[in-house]
Amino acid sequence: MAAVHPKELILAKGFGSAKRQREFLVARSAARLGIAEMGFLPLPVGKGPKGEPLWPPGVVASLAHDEGWAGCLIAKRGSGLVALGLDFEPLNREVSKGVYQTIYSPAEAQQLEALGDWALRAGFCAKEAIFKCLYPLFGAYLGFLDAQLVFLDHQTFVAKLSQPSGAPEIPAQVTGQLWRQEDRIFAALGL
Fold it and tell me: CB 96: neighbour CB atoms within 10 A?
């Protein structure tokens, strides 16, 4: 892990557990390293009012962290990408059926259950990546049912999006990528 930035250390103290603080700091350190490799000053990655990362000027990025893993997608503003979303989840984490009822519509749940347990985790991961991509761009919070997965396989997901009331117009549909590494499923997309 790169040296911890003092401003990020202050932000990390807002997390209750030492484990979550460490994950937060590892992800921010990875992001700063990536930003520096792209030729930008390795400025601290702030935290917005909804918990979203605040990136230095000229940077488009998304990060994820969980259970000792951290990752970041980074691009230069003007590279053709205006927003990125990244998430990953352990495939072996136990999730109750009740939780899935809050994440998926009945039609989505049926479609994903037919593909197997991995698809239920992948769908959640895809929706998280969508939200991470859209929120900084549009400032609109989407609920889980506002992104309806219409296609998902081991490499790709497609979701139709509902238009949040009072928000700038968001895309009607997005497509992203899925992949597995060790015991994790990853989802990423760019706009």
Answer: 7
